[in-house]
Amino acid sequence: MRKFIFVLLTLLLVSPFSFAMKGIIWQPQNRDSQVTDTQWQGLMSQLRLQGFDTLVLQWTRYGDAFTQPEQRALLFKRAAAAQQAGLKLIVGLNADPEFFMHQKQSSAALESYLNRLLAADLQQARLWSAAPGVTP
């Protein structure tokens, strides 16, 4: 019987459900700048109280959105507030609104396009790695 209980407890502890992330996805929009810092902090606290442990920031750049320093600063500030509320942070990088249109290109053109996306993602990763007050 002890062996059975030991095996059962071991299975429960290594179950994927015991390690599952309880995240929520945020797709930043320019209109999010209308949300005050106090409202955002309250929202992050509510997420923690509701059992979420991770904020997934879907993108940190979407086309031309979030390319201006003040827009990036707001994203950094919101990400830092999420972490201060106790949420882990998963940071998405560059998203091209025309991504699916480019899938119809020739192989050579598609390879060139994907290399440009890679360069944009690397640039975003460097930017967020150096973000003040944020640990992505």
TrEMBL record:
Keywords: Signal. The keyword Manganese does not apply. Residues 1-20 form the signal peptide. Residues 21-130 form the DUF4434 domain. The keyword Signal applies. It holds the Pfam family DUF4434. This is DUF4434 domain-containing protein. The lineage of its organism: Bacteria, Pseudomonadati, Pseudomonadota, Gammaproteobacteria, Enterobacterales.
